[in-house]
Amino acid sequence: MKTSEDRTNMSGVERTVKIIEVLSRADGINLENLSRETGLPKATLLRFLTSLTNLGYVCRDDADHYSLTLKLFCVGSRTLSHIDLISKARPFAKQLCEGLGETVHMGILEGDRAVYVLKEESSYTLRMYSRIGKTIPLYCTAIGKIFLSEMDEKELEAYLMSHSLKPYTSRTVSNPDALRTQLELIRKRGWSIDDQEHEDNIMCIASPIRDYSGQVVAAMSVSWPLFRFNQADFEKIVSQIQNATRQLSAIMGFDEED
User: Fold this and answer.
1) Where are the domains of the chain?
2) Which of 60, 81, 170, 220 has the most CB atoms in a 10 Å sphere around its CB?
3) Could you count the other beta carbons within 10 Å of the beta carbon of residue 20?
């Protein structure tokens, strides 16, 4: 809880951002409720709202309810074309690779397959064979299952109707119902695993990267030869991967609290 002294010490920028954040969650809000939500006096709010209205970022309707205009979105959206996902992701991939000692990939959805667009190579002599530009199936890879888990029911059924789910290894999930169960679990926990489903003796764990709209635009994975994977560190490993993709998603404009 902020004290009155804390509120007094808030800078003009902090107050402006606070007002905008509250307005972004409301479909029109009056001065009294906005004052309660922001913790700012009405006189202060009126001063800031007048400036924001004059600049075109806020509008007031006939019932004296305030709301954001689309101008803020238009200004923010101009930066999207300047965000290079691969260059933004590279430091996180490198950090994961150095921290876990294993190969890191980032993949995007391309039609009915995923394609590697970034790779940080393990320093070990024995490595997983892969290359940037390589395509991989969705149903039996950690990155691919992230994209499948984001499909709605109609999209998923269309995918399953057009793909035979052929087994790559003895552990490939080739039953549609079993795959649906896996995907439901991925949605709940926020990460996926390929436990020797695409390649024998290779394990991969992946987590989604989301953009400002919440859409999954990529997934990042770490791959291990099975003999180097320490099961005792499983939760710690998952946490590290998710931490990297959450930070990258935040850079892409995704707010988990929305």
Assistant:
1) 4-77, 80-251
2) 220
3) 16
- Determine contact, residues 81/87, Cβ cutoff 8 Å: no
Decide if 254 contacts 214 (C-beta within 8 A).
yes
User: What architecture does CATH give domain 4-77?
Assistant: Orthogonal Bundle (1.10)
User: Which among 193, 208, 218, 206 is positioned nearest to 140, based on CA atoms?
Assistant: 193
Tens of pLDDT, residue by residue over 136-172, are: 999 999 999 999 999 999 999 999 999 999 999 999 9
At 93-138, the pLDDT tens digits run 999 999 999 999 999 998 899 999 999 988 776 556 677 888 899 9
Beta strands in the chain (DSSP E): 58-60, 66-68, 103-110, 113-120, 135-137, 192-195, 202-210, 216-225
Residues 80-251: name the CATH superfamily. Answer: GAF domain (3.30.450.40)
Residues 110/113/117/123 CA torsion (nearest 10 deg): 180
Do the Cβ atoms of 150 and 211 come closer than 8 Å?
Answer: no
Amino acid letter for position 155: E
Contact indicator for 53, 46 with CB cutoff of 8 Å: no
What six digits make up the tokens of 43?
A: 């006189």
**Cα dihedral 5/8/9/14 (nearest 10):** 130
Q: Which residues of 89-125 are buried (b: 16+ CB within 10 A; e: fewer)?
A: beebbebbbeebebbbbbbbbeeeebebbbbbebeee
